[in-house]
From TrEMBL:
Alphabetical UniProt keywords: ATP-binding, Cobalamin biosynthesis, Nucleotide-binding, Transferase
Protein name: Corrinoid adenosyltransferase
Species: Paenibacillus phyllosphaerae
Residues annotated as transmembrane: none
Residues in Cobalamin adenosyltransferase-like domain copies: 3-167
Keyword flag Transferase: yes
Organism phylogeny: Bacteria, Bacillati, Bacillota, Bacilli, Bacillales
Length: 191
C-alpha cells in the first residue's frame, strides 16, 4: 500500500459523498477529534505504567474507538439518510463512569489547576481539546445536519476527562492543586 496519493496536493480532501477544502469546518471538526484521540492514546500509554490505573486504560481504549465513530459520523458531506455509528448509549455509559470517578476523588469546591500526576495532566489536555472539538461541532451543526448524538457524547466526554483526571490523582495519592484565587464554585454534597 502506498500512503501518499497526491490527491490532496491542491488543498482538497475526500469526505463521504464528495470533496471539500482541507480547511472546511467539517474537516477541522473531525481533525480535532483525531487530535483528541491521539492525546487519549498518550494518556492511556502513560496510565499503563501504573497498576492502579488498569481500569482507566480499558475506559480510554473504548473511548478511542468511539472517537473514531464520532469522526466517521461527522465526515458525511450530506448526512441525510446515512446510518450513523454512534447512538446515545455511550453518553449514558460515560455518565456512570463520571459518577464513579467523582466518588473516587476528594470533594472539590474550587477550580483546580490542570496537573498533578503526569496522567492527570494529560487527561486535562484531553478535556481542553475535547471542549474545542465540541465548539467546532456546534459550528458545524449550525451549517448542516449532523448526528446530534456526537455532540451529546463530546459534551459528556469533556466532563469525564475532568472527573477521571481527579480520580487518577487520587488513585496515585497526588493531591489536586486548587486555583488560589478561585471562589467556591462547586456546591458541596448535601448529606
Amino acid at each position: 500500500m502506498r500512503l501518499y496519493t497526491r490527491t490532496g496536493d491542491s488543498g482538497q480532501t475526500s469526505v463521504k459523498g464528495g470533496r471539500v477544502r482541507k480547511d472546511d469546518i467539517r474537516v477541522e471538526t473531525y481533525g480535532t477529534i483525531d487530535e483528541l484521540n491521539s492525546f487519549v492514546g498518550q494518556a492511556a500509554a502513560v496510565a499503563l505504567r501504573e497498576q492502579k490505573l488498569a481500569g482507566l486504560v480499558a475506559e480510554l481504549l473504548e473511548i478511542q474507538q468511539e472517537l473514531f465513530d464520532c469522526g466517521s459520523d461527522l465526515a458525511f458531506a450530506d448526512p441525510a439518510g446515512k446510518e450513523y455509528k454512534l447512538d446515545g448509549e455511550p453518553a449514558v455509559r460515560l455518565e456512570g463512569w463520571i459518577d464513579a470517578h467523582i466518588a473516587a476523588a476528594p470533594e472539590v469546591t474550587r477550580f483546580i489547576l490542570p496537573g498533578g500526576s503526569e496522567v492527570s495532566a494529560l487527561l486535562h489536555v484531553c478535556r481542553t481539546v475535547c471542549r474545542r472539538a465540541e465548539r467546532l461541532i456546534v459550528t458545524l451543526a449550525g451549517e448542516t445536519e449532523i448526528n446530534h448524538d456526537v455532540l451529546v457524547y463530546m459534551n459528556r466526554l469533556s466532563d469525564y476527562f475532568f472527573a477521571v483526571a481527579r480520580s487518577a490523582n487520587a488513585a496515585l495519592d497526588v493531591p489536586d492543586v486548587e486555583y488560589v484565587r478561585s471562589a467556591e464554585v462547586f456546591r458541596k454534597k448535601s448529606k
